[in-house]
Amino acid sequence: MLDTLLFFYLVVPLVHLIHEAGHVCMAKLHKVKNTEIGIGVGPKIFDFYFKGTKIQLNIIPFLGGYSSNDQAGKLSHKEIALISFGGPLFTLLSIVFFLPFWTPFQFSFSALFVYFSLWIGIVNLIPFKIGEKQSDGWQIASSLIQLVKNR
Q1: Chain centroid, CA 80 distance in Å
Q2: H or E element: which one contains 65?
């Protein structure tokens, strides 16, 4: 029971934070300001600022995350593709830091981190759209298509 709680309230939010931080870092490389990261859904528990980015933790932290900025509609297709790629890139690169602690044939939080990061990193690269929600892969693919069309 404690293992399950630690997974949902520690490992999952950490993976989401790393993923969203990847988007924000790529956005900041493209001079985007007023960035925000939200972890979870529901009412806000607390928020704080880190290097100009507002980070907010919500009451149910294991149900996803988001990042946003004030440049919607002002970014080029190339910038959108690169910023969208930042999340999966950071998620997959974070696995490298956990590999020394990984015990694939035993239960460990490092193994859960590695498996969940692989899942989030790979699934987010698949282009899909559900209603208004678009995966990172969708953003990347649609931006690249627009770049090719505009040539």
Answers
A1: 14
A2: strand 53-68
**Contact in structure between 40 and 17 (CB atoms under 8 Å):** no
pLDDT tens string 24-47: 999 999 999 899 999 999 999 999
Global pTM reads 0.92
Residue with structure tokens 């859904």?
A: 41
Per the domain annotation, does 25 fall within a domain?
A: yes
Give exposure, 44-63, as e/b (b: 16+ Cβ within 10 Å): eeeeeeeeebebbbbeebbe
Q: Which domain holds residue 80?
A: 2-32+73-149
Q: Does residue 54 lie within any of the structural domains?
A: no
**Count: domains in the chain:** 1
Tokens standing for residue 98: 């956990």
* Joined tokens for residue 114: 């590695």
Token pair, residue 150, equals 């505009």
